[in-house]
Each structure stands twice: as C-alpha cells, then as structure tokens.
Amino acid sequence: MTTCFLDTNIFIRFITNDDPSKAEACYRLFKRIEKEDLQVTTSESVIAEVVYILTSKKLYNLPRSEVCDRLYPLISLSNLKINRREALRKALDLFDKMPIDFEDCLTIAHMERQQLKNLYSYDQDFDRVEAIQRLEP
C-alpha cells in the first residue's frame, strides 16, 4: 500500500467546512483512512500549523477545546502514521487545559517523554508548569 502525506489544508477543510465541496472530499478521504483503505502520514509541524490556524483570532478563532476535540480523533486514526503520536496527544491535552502556545505544549510533552525537568528559556509561560524548572542562561 502506498503511503501519502497529509498537508495542513486537508485538516483545515475537513474541520472547518469552509469550502463544502472540499470538506466533503476530505471527509471521504478520512473515511478511507479510518476503514484502512488508505495509509497516510503527516508531521508534528503540520499539526502545529493546524492548531495555530484554527485558533488564530484573524482566521477561524475556534476555542481551544473545540480544536482539541476535532483533532484528537484524527491523529488517533491507526492508518495515519505520525511520529511521536503520544507526544501530540499529550500536547493537545495540555493545550486544552493551559493558556500557553501549542508549540510550548509540544515542548512540555517531549520533555515529559524524555523525563527532563530543566529547560533553558526566556519564555515565562513555562513557569506555569510545576513539573518544569525554567532556567535562564
């Protein structure tokens, strides 16, 4: 079975239904993936871009919880191959609960996976995470 890569706009069209014909085509695509008729892959950067676009006040301005609710089942599809899926799930959980950027949530998820406690950063948002000790050079 040939593997294809899913780009950001496929997720956006499906989730937002802003272009009904493309949204329907994306729906059928995700149904094929769900039925395991098609194997696809995507990247962490694509998912980060999807989150950024959907929550952007200038674009879709969707609530964090809605973005997480819509993305979680998609990144959980067994025929969607994605590196470090558990880190993405953890990042979505954090993003839903904490007022910090998704990219920072990914950092926290990766740190947790690697059992790291210390982080060099000037970003004070990390001070909100009890499990992390933010350090400055």
CATH class group of the largest domain: Alpha Beta
Q: State which percent range the strand residues make up.
A: 5-15%
Separation of termini?
Answer: 49 Å
CATH architecture of the largest domain: 3-Layer(aba) Sandwich
Quick one: biggest sheet?
3 strands, parallel
Report the order of strands and helices: EHHEHHEHHEE
Total of DSSP H or I helical runs spanning 4+ residues: 6
- Number of separate structural domains: 2
Portion of residues within helices: 40-55%
Q: Strand pairing plus helix content: what structural class?
A: mainly alpha
CATH topology of the largest domain: Rossmann fold
Low-confidence stretches: none
Number-wise, the strands total: 5
Provide the spatial order of strands within the biggest beta sheet: 1-2-3
> Could you report the average pLDDT, rounded to the nearest whole number?
95
Report the principal-axis shape: globular
Rg value: 16 Å
* CATH H-level superfamily of the largest domain: 5'-nuclease
Structure description:
With 137 residues, this protein is mostly helical. The chain folds into 2 domains: 1-83, Rossmann fold (3-Layer(aba) Sandwich), CATH 3.40.50; 85-137, no CATH class. It is built from 6 helices and 5 strands, in the order βααβααβααββ. The strands form 2 sheets. It has a 3-stranded parallel β-sheet, with no helix packed on it. Strands 4-5 form a two-stranded parallel ribbon. α1 (8-16) crosses α2 (20-34) and α5 crosses α6 (102-113). The radius of gyration is 16 Å and the shape is globular. 23% of the residues are buried.
